[in-house]
Amino acid sequence: MPTCAAEAELENFKRTPSAAITVLHLLTSDGLPAHVRQAGAVYFKNMCKQHWDAEASDITIAEPVKQQVRTCHGPARANPAVATRDGALSSFGVTCPASLR
User: Fold this and answer.
1) Which of 1, 46, 65, 92 could pair with 41 in a Cys bridge, judged by C-beta atoms 3.0 to 4.6 Å apart?
2) Structural domain tally of the chain?
3) pTM value?
């Protein structure tokens, strides 16, 4: 249960179809302070761990979004503006969820 308005907003945000992609873009934003991006990295990791599998949660990350996340984090890493699995997450001390590997 959310304990404040900000947590309630984050709970609602998770339900938006592009939430995971939006957070990934925030992780690579040069305009945000490092502590904000670090919080985003932890949020992204937890969101993926909790909502990647349909059986595990009432909120499930949609398959097209999963594919976008894999593309951003996967071996191709074609877009340098998007975080890499071993880049943005690990630079904040966050281990990439196994489901993205």
Assistant:
1) 92
2) 1
3) 0.69
